[in-house]
Amino acid sequence: MLGFRFSDYKKPDQTPFEALFDIFKQLLTYTNGDFDEAISWLTELDKEYQLTDKSYGIGDFINELKEKGYIKEDQPQGGGFIITAKTEQAIRQQALEKIFGKLKRSRQGNHATRFTGNGDEITPDTRPFQFGDDIGQISMLDSFRNAQINNGIGDFRMTEDDLEVYEKEHKTQTSTVLMIDISHSMILYGEDRITPAKNVAMALAELIRTRYPKDTLDILVFGDDAWEIEVKDLPYLQVGPYHTNTVAGLELAMDLLRRRKNANKQIFMITDGKPTCIKENGNYYKNSFGLDRKIFIKCLELAQSCRRLKIPITTFMVATDPYLQEFVHDFTEANNGKAYYTSLKGLGEFIFEDFERNKKRRV
C-alpha cells in the first residue's frame, strides 16, 4: 500500500558563518548597529560557549562578512568597519522571521475585506457571468455542469447564461504610521524596552515591503520632539534623555497620513509611559510628576481629531501601572481605537496580529 512516511523535522545544518551571523545580527540590534561593540560581545560569547573551533574563528567570520558585502571599511573615521545596507536588510528579515513566523499561517490575502469585486486573489465563490468579466475568471467545471443541466447531454451547447466566474477579493491599501517612544523611561529600571520596539518596527517594515508593496509605512520617534526616521535608521535607534511628547508624535503622524492618498489609515503607537511634555510658543512645558491635566487634555483633543478623520490609533503600552492604564483607556475611548497592555515578550505578536486583522476589514 502506497502512503507517506513521516519523520521528525531536522533543521538543515548551518555553516559556521551562518550560525555566527544569526547571533551577530541580534547583537547589532542591541548595540544600535555598532560593529565593534557587537564583535566584542560575539567574542565574549565565543569564549563562554565555544561557538568556534580551530577550523573557523572570529577572524575568519569578519573576513567573510567583508567578502560577502555585509561590512565595509569606515574610511572617513580613520579605520574600522561599519555595517552596510545589505546587513540592515538582513536584520529586518531576521526580525520578520522571528516575530511573524510565530503567527498562524491561515491568514491570506493582501488587505482582504468582506467586499468582493475586482481584485488580485480569486476566491472559491462563484457567480453568474456578467458583461465585462475577465474570461480568465470563468470556472469551466461549473460552467460545463450548468450547460449539461440546462441543455442536456445529447444536444450539448453552452450559452452565456451557463457561464459562471470566480469571485475576486476586493483589496484595500493601508497607510500606517508607527510611533516609537524614545524617552528615557524606555531603558529605566534595568529593562530594555527600545530593542523589542526596534525589532517590531524592522519586522513590520520588511513585511510591508515584501508582502504588501502597495501599502505605505512611515516611522517616527518621539521624545521632547517628534521626527521621522527611515527604515534604514532603525538598527541605530537609541533612547535619549527625553521627556514624552506624545502630542508632537500625534501631530506629525497626522501630517504624514494627510499626504497619503489611501482611504485606509492607521496609527500604531508603542510607549511605556504617560505624556509629560508639550511645546508651546517655542518653549517646552514639562511635568514628570503624575499625569498633567494640561498635557492630558491636549492628547485627548488629538485623539478625537483622529477619530473624526477616521484614523484609528492602536496603543501598545509596555507598562502596567494602573494610572497609566487609566490614561490609555481614556485616550483610546476618545479615539474609538484599541489598546493592548503587553509585556515586551508579546509585543511583536500583538502588533502583527492587529495589523493582519485590520487588513481583513476597512479600518
Explain what this protein looks like in three dimensions.
The termini are far apart. Mean pLDDT is 83; it is low at 103-119. This protein has 3 domains: 16-83; 119-170, no CATH class; 174-358, Rossmann fold. Helix 6 (194-211) packs parallel to helix 10 (347-358). Helices cover 39% and strands 19% of the residues. The chain has helices at residues 16-30, 35-49, 58-67, 85-100, 140-151, 194-211, 246-258, 293-308, 322-335, 347-358; strands spanning 71-73, 81-83, 112-116, 122-128, 164-171, 174-181, 216-222, 226-229, 264-271, 277-280, 283-286, 313-317, 338-341. It is flat, with a radius of gyration of 26 Å. A 6-stranded mixed sheet has the order 8-7-6-9-12-13, sandwiched between helices. A 3-stranded antiparallel sheet has the order 3-5-4. The protein is of the alpha/beta class and 363 residues long.
Give the SSE layout:
Layout: H1 16-30, H2 35-49, H3 58-67, E1 71-73, E2 81-83, H4 85-100, E3 112-116, E4 122-128, H5 140-151, E5 164-171, E6 174-181, H6 194-211, E7 216-222, E8 226-229, H7 246-258, E9 264-271, E10 277-280, E11 283-286, H8 293-308, E12 313-317, H9 322-335, E13 338-341, H10 347-358
Parallel strand pairs: 6-7, 6-9, 9-12, 12-13
Antiparallel strand pairs: 1-2, 3-5, 4-5, 7-8, 10-11
Helix pairs in contact: 1-2, 1-4, 4-6, 6-10, 7-8, 8-9
